[in-house]
Specification:
The protein has 427 residues and is an alpha/beta fold. It is built from twelve helices and 18 strands. The strands form four sheets. Strands 4, 5, 6, 7, 10, 11, 12 and 18 form an eight-stranded mixed sheet that branches. Strands 16-15-14-13-17 form a five-stranded antiparallel sheet, with no helix packed on it. The chain is globular. 29% of the residues are buried.
Length: 427
């Protein structure tokens, strides 16, 4: 089943999200109209007085590449889900390109421009890396957007992916989850990420993996994270209490890789945690109660409830969860694409313009979502109604990307704009 549909009255006051079948009835009876396609939102044609809403909790599972977002009502039902794909790598590539352009500009004989960086001051708590700051700002954008369409009363965020203190010192005591059912979840989850869910010795994937001591405990090995790896059952039984140098005597490259990977510091987890702390401080400014949970507890909740692994499911399992009923399966897939570059046209390798400036066609710009009617087969695309994005509009028409093919239109007779470009692509 698809996500529940957001509903607002004519004053744009959020109401309770409704079932897709209920939304279809409102549309067919002309009691509501489509207000926004992404996320799909209906607006009533009248003002609803004395709106009674149930509390909805917004849950977030931040990640370096994908962030999961879920809405859970007061009956522990997951009514809406979303996966937000970040563009950190794309930002890094753009910064590298800009750096090359600036370095090339310094070698040219141009006028001297005095340095400006001495009069710049960075605010306290600012994430310096643009790729990290992008993750925080993108999630903040969607949290604010969802608060406009749903009566959200609380926010729950997964604050840390791993408990670094427990990873450094597994023998630490006095913490409830280390003595109860959650014991070991933080360590196992971290090892799965560190060793990419593969056997460290043979590289086997999609098999049950066991926690393995690189230096056996029988020979003085410890439970610290730097002495742990993952191994399949066959390799674990074959190694037993052997030293790794003896067990992999014929594979010196594998030994070197394992030892280097084992000594890798916790800086990767710390970098992700720093982004999450920045997001937490940002969410606190929204004047909603914000609570947090750890990644190990999220996985414990998901495993206990026997739910499948996905980012939005992990988001629904963040924090204190006694029971959970998932009422949706088709969630919104959102990918951050940005608004393009500031260049008015493309340039060649010498830096000279090689295309016309950016144009619009009948108020349609690059990246807009449109619904088109194709009356006959064109470029392996059969006739029918499709939804696509506008590509390179010109004064003579525009092209729409449909199923990977560019379909040209010389007029707007069969083209209807449904969503303006907002820096995201939707599935």
């Amino acid at each position: 089943m698809s996500n529940f549909v957001f509903l607002i009255d004519s004053n744009k006051t959020p109401m309770n999200p409704i079932h897709p079948a209920h939304a279809k009835k409102l549309l067919n009876s002309n009691k509501a109209a489509v207000f926004r396609y992404y996320p799909f939102t209906l607006i009533m044609n009248r003002v609803v007085e004395n709106i009674v809403t149930y509390p909805i909790t917004l849950k977030i599972d931040p990640g370096s590449k994908v962030t999961g977002i879920a809405l859970v009502n007061n009956r522990d039902e997951v009514i809406w889900g979303m996966e937000l794909h970040h563009r950190g790598l794309a930002i890094n590539d753009c910064l590298e390109t800009r750096k090359g352009v600036r370095r090339g500009r310094r070698t040219r004989h141009t006028r001297y421009r005095q340095a400006r960086f001495l009069n710049r001051k960075r605010p306290d708590g600012r994430l310096n890396a643009p790729s990290l700051r992008h993750r925080v700002l993108t999630v903040e954008t969607w949290v604010k957007r969802l608060c406009k369409f749903a009566p959200i009363t609380a926010i729950v965020q997964e604050l840390v992916r791993f408990d670094l203190q427990q990873l450094e010192n597994p023998e630490i005591s006095g913490i409830e989850y280390q003595q109860g059912e959650l014991q070991g979840y933080e360590v196992r989850e971290y090892l799965l990420n560190k060793w990419e869910r593969k056997c460290a010795y043979c590289g086997a994937e999609n098999v049950p993996l066991q926690v393995e001591h690189i230096k056996p405990k029988a020979k003085g090995g410890t439970n610290r994270i730097s002495n742990l790896c993952l191994a399949c059952q066959k390799c674990n039984q074959k190694k037993e209490t052997q030293d790794i140098e003896k067990f992999l005597a014929k594979k010196p490259e594998v030994i070197k890789t394992i030892l280097a990977q084992a000594k890798r510091p916790l800086k990767d987890a710390a970098a992700v945690n720093s982004t999450r702390w920045g997001l937490l401080n940002t969410l606190k400014k929204l004047e909603l109660p914000v609570t947090t949970g750890s990644g190990g507890k999220t996985k414990f909740n998901r495993t206990r409830l026997q739910l499948p692994k996905s980012h939005w499911i992990d988001a629904a399992c963040v924090g204190i969860v006694e029971k959970l009923q998932v009422l949706t399966s088709k969630v919104l897939e959102v990918k951050a694409t940005g608004h393009g570059c500031r260049r008015f046209c493309r340039i060649d390798k010498y830096g000279f313009p090689c295309t016309l400036p950016k144009q619009t066609f009948n108020h349609v710009s690059t990246g807009d979502f449109v619904k088109v009617l194709i009356t006959k087969d064109r470029k392996n695309v059969p006739s029918g109604i499709y939804t696509g994005r506008v590509k390179t509009p010109t004064g003579k028409g525009c092209e729409v990307v449909i199923n990977g093919f560019r379909i040209g239109f010389s007029n707007m007779t069969n083209v209807k704009t449904i969503h303006r470009n907002d820096g995201f692509s939707y599935t």
